[in-house]
Design goal:
single chain, 614 residues, 6-stranded antiparallel β-sheet, 5-stranded antiparallel β-sheet, 14 helices
Length: 614
């Protein structure tokens, strides 16, 4: 993903247009690594989302809403104190020396603020978008640090401390050049001194370029990106500079970015502040301002050597691109972070139950030969009179099979004592078999329950879904009960999914075992249809038929409902999934099982590709 200096430059352009002259009306911190600013400018509110999540750092205009904690974290309180109601006077992107413009992945918000004494002062909010090193740092006018959302001590970094009252600077970029100050002569001399492949030489020696941007420059110039830069001909370097300057000039100097998202098939794989012609070759730069405000307009479609289809889409702003690209990834990332404790507990429990199951199966297998000890004991009671004592075996006829059989004996014991020994051994193995069989069934039920929770956890899409799963794990003793806070009790409760099929039939889908129980035995009527992925953990899918018989229901309804059952199952990523379906009246609850577990004997099956309805 090319979150490089050019993307930041396009974002800064948008901020300058919408934020300069505005007052910071509200500051919140919904996540430990995320700040929201509400800026009031010319009677319009603009919300700015600043996230330094190591995997998804971003800084954009944001239209969504996230609940904030009741008690604001310390850094949020510091921001409110120093820049609350402050006037944004400038938004800029610096080079390493800070006082000059450049293409570092840093945004500086310059803010005028009145202190407690009514004196006007200046504060600078630095947003560093540098992957796992991302940070939000509040500075004084002289660039000393007031505080940061992520403090870095000398023991954590030998390059730079990020602590109160330390001087602020951007870490050394390794002699990278500022692209805004590069002349053609400087560029040619720089490339001629680089022994690396040309595309690597570009982003290793020039600030603000990503591998994707460097590859695009090579493509536009028609030069071999893998050829060493110092081996390129003079005319090739001139073409490369022309392509380099064209992109830098469009985005960072003339400030005419053309934000796009690149889709491979239907999956977003890349975004940029300018068209990526190496994927969409019929793209032309003249479309730079041909936006469709508030929506994306599809452009060129091309296929690679494997037949995969690439599609570029224009968007009205860089913030819109980042929002569309990161929205789903950010949600799943947050849910994964918040469910870490549940995943650890689940993995530990499933590993423990799997080991227990293996031992129980091994123990049960050891009881398979128990019947021969009963036969030995009974035959010794029948033929033991023929023994004189001291024998180590007895040859006799097995009256169950009419075959000769040899019974091993303990020569120190009498015939009756040997018979008692074998019958006791038989009784012990029989009791073991009975007990282990019960334990084995219980272990399998527990494993199935844990697997169903794991599947529901992988499908969770919000905090309320996690709360339901946490409650279920507490109810069944997998987690210790935690006293809920009042704010947690007032949280919005998770509800089953509700879809409408293409033919207008209502479809309800449980997100977890409690909801599976609800949709199947409370929402559904006896004549409604029930779908579930065959023999794997997944959601119950209910189709409200309105009492219509099978023959009157459209085939498309069965395909769509089965596709949803496959999608909301542990086999979501498979190409084809077998799905069982039957009438709701054919289902029965499993005695003493967890909620959502059912049995049925009358059903049909269909094999479909997992798919989700709009």
């Amino acid at each position: 993903m090319a979150y490089d200096g050019l993307v930041v430059s396009a974002t800064v352009k948008e901020f300058r247009e919408r934020l300069i002259g505005g007052k910071i009306a509200k500051i919140t911190q919904p996540e430990k690594d995320e700040i929201h600013l509400v800026v009031r400018n010319q009677k319009e509110n603009t919300k700015v989302q600043i996230s330094v999540n190591p995997s998804l750092p971003l800084c954009t205009v944001y239209d969504g809403n996230k609940p904030s904690p009741v008690t604001a974290p310390n850094f949020c309180m510091t921001l409110r104190k120093h820049i609350g109601n402050g006037l944004i006077t400038d938004v800029r992107q610096p080079e390493q020396k800070l006082h000059m413009d450049g293409l570092e992945r840093v945004i500086l918000f310059e803010i005028e603020h009145l202190d407690e004494m009514g004196d006007r002062g200046k504060r600078i909010l630095s947003v560093e978008l540098m992957g796992k090193y991302s940070n939000i740092i509040l500075l004084r006018e002289d660039y000393t640090i007031i505080d940061s959302i992520r403090r870095i001590s000398a023991s954590q970094s030998s390059v730079r401390e990020v602590l109160p009252n330390r001087p602020y600077f951007i870490p050394d970029a390794g002699e990278k050049k500022n692209p805004l100050a590069l002349t053609e002569m400087d560029f040619t001399a720089l490339m001629s001194s680089q022994p690396e492949p040309t595309f690597k030489a570009l982003f290793h020696s020039i600030t603000g370029l990503s591998p994707v941007t460097a590859s695009e420059m090579c493509f536009r110039a028609g030069v071999d990106p893998d050829l060493s830069a110092n081996c390129q001909r003079e005319d090739s370097l001139k073409k490369l500079y022309t392509a380099f300057f064209s992109i830098i000039n469009q985005v960072a100097i003339d400030r005419r970015p053309d934000p796009v998202i690149l889709y491979k098939e239907d999956t977003p794989v890349e975004f940029s502040a300018f068209p990526l012609t190496m994927y969409c070759q019929d793209e032309v730069s003249e479309t730079a301002n041909a936006y469709t405000t508030g929506s994306a307009s599809s452009i060129s479609v091309n296929k690679d050597a494997t037949g995969a289809e690439y599609r570029c889409e224009h968007y009205a702003s860089m913030s819109e691109v980042i929002h569309h690209f990161y929205e789903e990834k950010d949600t799943s990332s947050r849910i994964r972070q918040r469910s870490t404790d549940l995943r650890k507990v689940l993995n530990t429990l499933m590993e423990r139950e799997s080991k227990k199951l293996m031992l129980q199966e091994k123990q049960l297998k050891s009881t398979e030969g128990k019947d021969k000890y009963r036969v030995y004991g009974e035959l010794l009671h029948t033929y033991g009179y023929s023994l004189e004592g001291g024998e180590d075996h007895l040859d006799c006829e097995n009256y169950y099979t009419n075959e000769e059989i040899r019974i091993p004996l303990d020569s120190t014991l009498s015939a009756s004592e040997n018979a008692k020994h074998y019958l006791d051994r038989y009784d012990k193995l029989k009791r073991t078999e009975q007990n282990v069989t019960i334990q084995l069934q219980e272990t399998k039920r527990t494993l199935e329950h844990l697997e169903s929770i794991e599947t529901a956890l992988s499908l969770a899409e919000g905090e309320e879904d996690l709360a339901d799963l946490r409650r279920e794990m507490q109810d069944f003793g997998y987690l210790h009960h935690i006293v809920q806070k009042k704010t947690e009790k007032l949280q919005k409760k998770s509800k089953p999914y509700h879809f409408v099929s293409s033919d207008g039939y209502e479809i309800f889908i449980g997100k977890n075992n409690y909801q599976n129980e609800e949709v199947t035995f409370k929402i559904a009527d006896g004549g409604d249809l029930w779908f579930h992925a065959k023999n794997v953990p997944g959601s119950h899918v209910i189709v409200k038929t309105g009492g219509k018989p099978f023959s009157e229901l459209p085939d498309r309804l069965f395909l769509e409902a089965a596709g949803l059952a496959a999608y909301y199952s542990s086999h979501q990523s498979d190409q084809k999934v077998e799905v069982d379906y039957t009438l709701r009246k054919n289902l029965r609850k499993v005695p003493n099982a967890a909620p959502g577990f059912v049995i049925y004997h009358t059903n049909y099956s269909i094999t479909v590709a997992p798919q989700k309805l709009a």
